[in-house]
Amino acid sequence: MDRLLLNTAFATYLLSVLLYLAHALLRRPLLWRSAFGLVLAGFALQTVCLVLRWIQAGYLPITNLFSTLFFFSWALAACYLYFEIRYRIHAAGLFVMFLNLLLLGFAVPRNPAFAPLIPALDTPLFTLHVVFSFFGYALFAMAFSLGVLYLVRRTTGSELLPELSLLRKLNEESIFLGFCLFTLCMLFGSVWAQVAWGYYFSWNIKGIWSFLVWLFYAGMCHAKFVRRWQGTGYAILSIAGFGVVLFTYLGIGLLMSSNHPLE
C-alpha cells in the first residue's frame, strides 16, 4: 500500500509539472488550475502515506534517507500550497513542483523500510526537532525557487511570472518563516541533546554546519533592510543559502561521519 501511494503521488506530481509547463507555453488558465488540482491530489496521497507509515512504525518515520527525502518533499508541497492559496502565484509553481518532483524522485527507488529507533530518539523532543528542521528546509527551498524566479523575471520580463515586487515579498517571507522554524529546530534539538547526552551543543560537524545555516539566514533576515542586498542581491543569497542547506542535509549525512547519518 505504501509503495502504491508513493508511486501514485509521484505520477500525480509529474503530471502537474507537465501541465504547468504546458501552461507556460500555451497560457491557458485551465492548465494551471488542473495542475494545481493535481498538486492537491498528490499532497493528499503523500499525507495518507505519511500517516499510514507513522501508524505502522509507532513513531514519525524520519530517520533515514528515504524517509527524510519523503518528508522534505511533503513539507515543500505544503509550503507551496500555502503560498499558492494565499498569493495565487500560478506559473511559479512549475519550478517549485519540479524541485519537489526531484526530491520525491530520489526517494522512490530507495528502500522504504523503517529504520530501528534507538532509545535516545524515542522522545517528542526529537520529533519536534526534525519536523521543524525539515519545514525550515522546505521554506528555504521555496525561497531558492522564488529567488530563481525573481532573476528570471528580472532578466526576461516575462508577464507569465508574478511581479518582481511580489516575488521579492514572498522570498523575504519564506526566509523569515524558515528562519523562525529552523530556530525552533535548534532550540528543541539543544534540549533533546541535554536530556539524551547531557550537553546542549556538541562541536560535531553536523552541529557546526546547522549553526552556520542558522547564522546565514539570520543575516538574511537583516539583509532585506540593506539597500544593496534588496531585490537581485537577496535572490542570489537565497540561491546560495539553499546550497548550504543541501550540504548540511545531504553532504554531511552521506559523505561524512556525524551523529546525523543518512543510510
TrEMBL record:
User: What topology does the record note for this protein and the membrane?
Assistant: Multi-pass membrane protein
UniProt xrefs under Pfam families: Cytochrom_C_asm
Please give the InterPro entries that the UniProt record associates with this protein. Answer: Cyt_c_assembly, Cyt_c_biogenesis_CcsA/CcmC
Q: Which domain of life is it from?
A: Bacteria
Tell me which residues make up the Cytochrome c assembly protein domain: 63-256
| Coiled-coil residue spans | none
Q: Where is the major localization of this protein?
A: membrane
UniProt keyword terms in alphabetical order: Cytochrome c-type biogenesis, Membrane, Transmembrane, Transmembrane helix
Transmembrane feature ranges? 6-26, 38-56, 62-83, 90-108, 128-152, 173-195, 207-226, 233-256
Q: Where in the cell is it found?
A: Membrane
What name has this protein been given in UniProt?
A: Cytochrome c biogenesis protein ResC
Organism of derivation = Desulfuromonas versatilis
